[in-house]
Amino acid sequence: MRYKVKRKDPLVNQRFDTFSPPPGDPDPWETTTATETSADDDLDPAAAAALLEQTRSRARREFDRRRPLLTVAAAVTVLVAYGAVWFSVRHQHPYSGPTGTALAVLYGMVAAWIVLNVAVHGRALRGRSSRQRRLEGLTFAAIWICVYIFQGALHHVDADHAISYGIYPAVAPLIIVGAVAAGYEAARQNASRAGFAALAVALGAFAAFAGPSAVWGVIAVGLCALLLLGAAGQRWAVRR
Predict the structure, then answer these.
(1) Which of 5, 102, 194, 203 has the smallest count of CB within 10 Å of its CB?
(2) Cα pseudo-dihedral 120, 123, 125, 128, rounded to 10
(3) Which backbone phi and psi does 9 adopt, to 5 degrees?
């Protein structure tokens, strides 16, 4: 007569087995590796690339919507900053240069616009685009600083300060920095920005003939008008 031997329940076995050594803890390396492998298997590279591109496109669209506002802010900055200098020198005979109050308004407005520009760029763009824009900003800032270093050299040879504190500081940033920007945008095949920079260079060359006092007013009005036209063009491009 045969007897069937029932299989022991493994849970019961483990509960009442007092002779075998206790089971060891699972190997953390094997657990981590298995988890990472399963996570990698679930990640689709094509979907991840599409999600990244979608995020970048959304950030760029957000920045494109804010760009006209930045340009309008630049137009207001130029009008107030250059207008304050023109207001301080319009009746000077002979010409002696902007007053300290006018220079404080000029540099304060420029600093406020730079802070606003950096804040908007920092929120809208990240990663490689952000690093590229920081590098571009540092490059143009270095060129701008060199413009005013040369102004210090003019101070020693300009007796009446009509050039070193009048015509040159008003038009040099437009002509020099604008020419660099025009070449840079043309190399990137950005016709609209290159054209805007070329117009700024032309405005600076034209305003230089207005004299040390009137040059500030000509640039205040002319550059403000150019920036407002640029903002309108950017707004139209976003809506298109």
Answers:
(1) 5
(2) 120
(3) -65, 125
* Cα four-point dihedral sign 206, 184, 136, 240: positive
pLDDT at 85: 95
Residue 48 identity: A
pLDDT digit string, tens, across residues 186-235: 988 888 889 999 999 999 999 999 999 999 999 999 999 999 998 888 78
- Assess whether pLDDT exceeds 80 at residue 129: no
Q: What is the mean pLDDT of residues 71-85?
A: 93
C-alpha span between 42 and 110 (Å, rounded): 51
User: In the predicted model, what is the mean pLDDT of residues 45-58?
Assistant: 60
Per residue, what are the HEC states of 120-136?
HHHHHCCHHHHHHHHHH
For the chain, how far is it from start to end, CA to CA, in angstroms?
A: 93
Q: Which two tokens stand for residue 144?
A: 């701008």
Find the DSSP H helices in 19-44: 28-42
DSSP 8-state assignment for residue 128? H
Closest CA relative to residue 219, chosen from 185, 175, 179: 175
Which is more confidently placed, 17 or 200? 200
Spatial CB neighbours of 101, under 8 Å, sequence gap ≥ 6: 84, 88
Residue at token pair 């009137």: 214
For residues 70 and 122, the answer to whether their CB atoms sit within 8 Å is: no
**pTM of the predicted model, to two decimals?**
0.67
Task: Determine how many CB atoms are found less than 10 A away from the CB of residue 98.
Answer: 22
Contact criterion met (CB below 8 Å) for 184 and 169: no
Which of 131 and 212 is assigned the larger pLDDT? 212
